Structure formats: C-alpha cells, structure tokens
C-alpha cells in the first residue's frame, strides 16, 4: 500500500503535467516504502537521488509549459520551485549527514505537504487557465 496517492483532487487540467505528477508520486512512494522497510542507507540514498533528479526535470518542464502559455505568474511560481528545492536539498543533506539509514519524519511530512499544497494549490493556477 502506497503512502502518496494521485487522485482527482490533484488533476490540474494539463495532461502532460498530470502524468509527470504521477511519476513524481511514484518516486515519493519509493522513498517512503524503502524508508519504512529500513533498506540500507545506500539504497535509500539512491532512491532519494532519483527523486531529486526527477524534481529538477519536472520543474524545468513545468516552467517551460508556463512560459509556452505566457502564464503571468511564472516568476512567482519559479520562486516557489526554488524554495521547494532549497528545502528538499536541506532534507537530503540532513539524511546524508546523519548515521541513520532512515529519513526524518519531517522529510516524509514535507513530501506530503508538497502534494497537498503545491500541486493542489499552486500548480492548479496555471492549469485552470485551460478550463
Ligand atoms: Fe509547480
């Protein structure tokens, strides 16, 4: 049973971005599941790296999409992405610098908040233009 689920409340009305959000959630679930299963630090670390790499790709694609529709909120949205990346990097560093083979509870909550607040609240803004 996965922790993070894509459902209709995360549908922003842009199919390509919905598909990327689903892949993003798969990466989040891989981190969550491996963390819960207490796999080795190395194994968990590579799933976290894969999540990070996908986030970079997704933000670039999302910003390119917003630019393609001349979305007025692009700069604000880009700033929010930068903030999310900074926070994600901080969680990843905390994990790398600790002796534990598990991430913190805060890391898990951060991923959950990301889905509920960023996708549902913020990404919805550029998505709704198409409705
Ligand atoms: Fe976004």
Summarize the structure in short.
The protein has 131 residues and is an all-alpha fold.
Structure in words:
The model has no long low-confidence stretch (mean pLDDT 94). The chain has one domain: Hemerythrin-like (Four Helix Bundle (Hemerythrin (Met), subunit A)), CATH 1.20.120.50. The termini are far apart. Helices cover 74% and strands 0% of the residues. The chain is elongated and about 45 Å long. The relative contact order is 0.17. It is mainly alpha-helical and 131 residues long. The structure holds fe (ii) ion. Fe (ii) ion binds next to helix 3 and helix 4. Fe (ii) ion binds at residues 62, 77, 81, 118, 122-123.
The fold-level CATH name is Four Helix Bundle (Hemerythrin (Met), subunit A)
How far apart are the termini? 33 Å
In DSSP terms (H or I, runs of 4 or more residues), the helix count works out at 4
The number of domains: 1
Rg over CA atoms: 15 Å
Ligand names: fe (ii) ion
The pLDDT mean sits at: 94
Shape: elongated
Taken as a percent bin, the fraction of beta residues is: under 5%
């Amino acid at each position: 049973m996965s922790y993070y689920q894509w459902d209709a409340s995360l549908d922003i009305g842009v199919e390509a971005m919905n598909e990327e959000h689903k892949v993003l959630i798969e990466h989040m679930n891989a981190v969550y599941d491996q963390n819960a299963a207490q796999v080795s630090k190395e194994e968990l670390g590579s799933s976290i790296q894969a999540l990070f790499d996908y986030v970079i790709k997704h933000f670039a694609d999302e910003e390119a999409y917003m630019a393609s529709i001349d979305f007025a909120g692009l700069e604000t949205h880009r700033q929010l992405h930068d903030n999310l990346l900074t926070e994600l990097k901080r969680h990843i560093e905390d994990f790398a610098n600790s002796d534990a083979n598990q991430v913190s509870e805060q890391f898990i909550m951060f991923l959950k908040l990301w889905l509920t607040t960023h996708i549902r609240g913020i990404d919805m803004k550029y998505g709704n233009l198409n409705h």
